[in-house]
Amino acid sequence: MTVMDQSMPNVLPALDAVRQIREGRLKSVDLVRACLNRIQETDGQIKAWAQLDSDYALAQAAEMDSIRRAGRPLGALHGIPVGLKDIVDTRDFLTERGTPIFAGRQPAEDAAIVERLRDQGAIILGKTVTTELAFVQAAETRNPHNVAHSPGGSSSGSAAAVAAFQVPLAIGTQTNGSVIRPASFCGTYGFKPTRGMISRRGILQTSKSLDQVGVFGRTLEDVAVLSDVVKGYDPADHLSYARPRPLMLEGCRADPPVDPEFVWLELPFNNRLTPAAREGLEEIMALLGDRVEKVSVPASFDGFIQAQRVIHEYEICQHLQETFSGYWEKISPALQQIVEHGRTISAAQYEDAVQFMVSANEYFDVFFHDYDAVLTASAPGEAPEFVEGTGDPVFSTIWTLCGLPSVSLPLLVGETGLPVGVQLVARTEQDDRLLRTANWIQNKLKAQQA
User: Fold this and answer.
1) Which of 27, 85, 192, 231 is catalytic?
2) Does residue 427 register a pLDDT over 80?
3) Residues 390, 136 contacting (CB under 8 angstroms)
4) What is the DSSP string of 253-320?
5) Among candidates 3, 29, 25, 6, which has minimal Cα distance to 16?
6) If you count Cβ atoms within 10 Å of the first and of the last residue's Cβ in the chain, which end, N or C, has fewer?
C-alpha cells in the first residue's frame, strides 16, 4: 500500500469532516471523491468492497452540498460517506450476502438503519465484503496492515475499509465476534451497542436471538455518533425495545463523576491469549492500579460458549432452511459441516440454551452494580495469517450471548506489530456510560505514557 497524503480529506475523522462541511470549508463531493480515489488506489490488494457506484455516491454528495448552500437543515452525518456490510438491504445497491446464491439480489426497500442514515444526511458509499452468509467461510478481504493476514470476520470489509482510510465509517453486525474481532485485527474502534438498541429490519437474519448491529470508526466519538444516528425503536424487530435510548456521543464526551471501577475476569479461555496480548493487558492493569479488581468466575461460565453455539446453529438452520436445502451445492464445506451439526440439535437442547442465556442476563444485571466495565481482550492476539481463517471469536461470545454493550479500543500491538484491541463491556442499556469509561481509560493511558 502507498503512503497517504495527510492533506486528503478521507483521513479526517467523521466528526471533523462534518464540522468542516457545516462551516463550508469542505465539500461532501471532495470528501467522497477522496474516498473513491483511496479505494481505487488500495482496494486491489485489500478487496474490502462488494458493491460500489462512484457516480451515484458523487450525486448523493452533490445533493448534500446543495442542501447546505441553500441553508436547509443538516443532519448529524451530513455529507459523510458510510460503508454497509453486504447483508444490509439497500434499494439502490445489490445485497448479495457474501454468497453466489444471492448473486444479483436487488432489495425493494432499504433496511431500517439505511433509512436512519439517509435521514441524517449520510452518503451510502457502497457495500462492504462479508463472509459467506455472515458466518465462518472467509471472503477475499485482506488486513490493510499486512495483506498476508486476515481482517477478521464476518464484518471483514467494513473494518478493513475504515482502517485503510477508504471510508470514515462503516456498519457491521455481530452474532458472536464479528464487529469486535475485526476492529481489533484492523486497528479501528468497534462498538456493538446493547441488543435491541438498533433495528435489524432489512438485515440478513442468521439468529433471531443473537444478531446485533455494530459500527466501525477511527475515533471513539465517531462510533458514538454513528450509533446515535442508527439507533431507535422499530416494532418490526421483536428485540427492539420501546423506551428511550442512551445518548452515546454525549456520554463519550462526559467526564465520569468518579474514577471508574474495572473488573478483570479469570475466564476459562484466557489461556488462549498470545504472550504479547497478555503482556499488554497486564501493563494496562498495572497502570490502572487499584481501579481494577481481578475476580474468579463461577463454574457456570464454562457453559457460555456451548449455549451461544447451540442457539446460533439451531436458529440459522431454521431461518435459512430453504436456502440450505435449495442451494446445498453452493454452500462451502465449512458451512455445510456447521449446518449438518445444527440439524442434529433438538428443540429441548435449544430451549435449555435459551434458558441459560436468560439466566446469564439476570446474573450480569446484578454483577455490574459493582463495576463500570469488564476489562478484557477483544481477540486472543493479532490477526492470524489469511490462510488460517478469520480468527477466534471467543472473547466476544459471552457479551454477545447476553446482548451487553462492548467496545474495542486500538491500544496494543502484537508480536509482529499488528494491532490488538482492548475490549470494555458494560451493563445493558448503559452504552453512554461505557463510552464515557472508554474515553476515560484511553485518556488516562495516554497521560501516563506521555
Assistant:
1) 85
2) yes
3) yes
4) HSPPSS---EEEEE-TTGGGS-HHHHHHHHHHHHHHGGGEEEEE--GGGGHHHHHHHHHHHHHHHHHT
5) 25
6) C
Structure letter (DSSP) for residue 3: P
Q: Is 28 a catalytic residue?
A: no
* pLDDT for residue 69: 98
**Could you tell me the CA-to-CA distances from 375 to 63, 329, 400 in Å, in that order?**
44, 43, 15
Position 394: which residue type? Answer: V
| Residue 280 in grid coordinates | 499488554
> How, if at all, do strands 189-192 and 262-266 pair?
unpaired
- Kindly list the strands in the beta sheet with 373-377, ordered across the sheet, starting from the edge strand earlier in the chain: 49-52, 123-128, 81-85, 169-174, 212-217, 189-192, 406-413, 419-425, 373-377, 262-266, 292-296
Q: How far is CA 23 from the centre of its chain?
A: 30
Q: Which three cell numbers stand for residue 244?
A: 428511550
Count the neighbouring beta carbons within 10 Å of the beta carbon of residue 25: 9
Report whether pLDDT(5) > 90.
no
* Max CA separation in the chain (angstroms): 63
Q: Which three cell numbers stand for residue 87?
A: 447483508
d(C-alpha 149, C-alpha 142), whole Å: 6
Question: In which band, very low, low, confident or very high, does the pLDDT at 374 lie, cut at 50, 70 and 90?
Answer: very high
Which residue is associated with the grid cell 478487496? 47
Q: What pLDDT is recorded for position 2?
A: 46
The predicted model scores a pTM of: 0.97
- State the SS3 of 72-124: CCCCCCCCCEEEEECCECCCCCCCCCCCHHHCCCCCCCCCHHHHHHHHCCCEE
- Does residue 154 have a cis peptide bond before it, meaning omega lies within 30 degrees of 0? yes
Q: Which residues pair with 266 in a beta bridge?
A: 296
Of these residues, 28, 154, 207, 406, which one is catalytic?
154
Under a CB-based contact definition with an 8 Å cutoff, are residues 384 and 148 in contact? Answer: no
Query: Residue 450 has what pLDDT?
Result: 67
Q: Which three cell numbers stand for residue 47?
A: 478487496
* Active-site annotation holds for 85: yes
pLDDT at 3 over 50: no
- Check if the beta carbon of residue 177 is closer than 8 Å to that of residue 400: yes
Q: Is 240 a catalytic residue?
A: no
DSSP string, 115-161: HHHHHTT-EEEEEE---GGGSSS--S--BTTBTTB---SSSHHHHHH
- Rounded Cα distance between 186 and 14, Å, is 18
Query: In this structure, are residues 398 and 406 in contact, taking their beta carbons and an 8 Å threshold?
Result: no
